[in-house]
Amino acid sequence: MKMMLNKTLNEFNGLNSAVIDSSSIIYMKKAGFLQLLSNRIKLITPEQAAAETGLNLIDVEIVEFENPKNYETDCIIVKTAFEKKLPVISEDKEILQHAAEKNLPYFNSLMMLCFLLSKKTISAVEYENFLGALKDFAWYSGSVYKYADELHKIIICNNG
Fold first, then answer.
1. Which residues of 85-122 are buried (b: 16+ CB within 10 A; e: fewer)?
2. 88 contacts 106 by C-beta, under 8 angstroms
3. Of the listed ranges 36-45, 58-67, 108-117, 125-134, the one predicted with least confidence
């Protein structure tokens, strides 16, 4: 797990843009940190994903995808990220697996919360508040929470 944690931290260092799907937009908006993340990195989503949120997305750049009728939204997310050589942010296990197959970095909302803490965009107290808000409605497996907890510990130690 240590190697994976270090890989994530290294990916955080180069993170300045990402393609985000509708579920992550909704999660972050509901938990209250979408704007904080969009102030830190450029968030991009295809118009199909933007439409799925039902939100007025001032925090996310909406892009067009050629021939959208030939693809499902999940596929468009990964294709957009691959074409733009950007990481993927999603809550969908299949999207994350497709991103991994294409050697794209990938994250979920919980990881983006760790990212904000690592970049000192939020404090440890704010992290706990946003985490509590996320836990109120989001579902992650025990292993995902454990990974985030280990990442959180490393970040806290590094931030001193």
1. ebbbbbbbeebbebbeeeebbbbbbbbbbbbbbbbebb
2. yes
3. 58-67
Whole-angstrom Cα distance, residue 110 to residue 148?
7
Prediction pTM value:
0.93
Choose among 80, 67, 74, 69: nearest CA to 18. 80
* Residues 1 and 148: beta-carbon distance below 8 Å: no
Radius of gyration of the chain (CA): 15
Residue 71, judged by CB atoms within 10 A of its CB (0-12, 13-18, 19+), counts as middle
Strands 88-89 and 42-46: unpaired
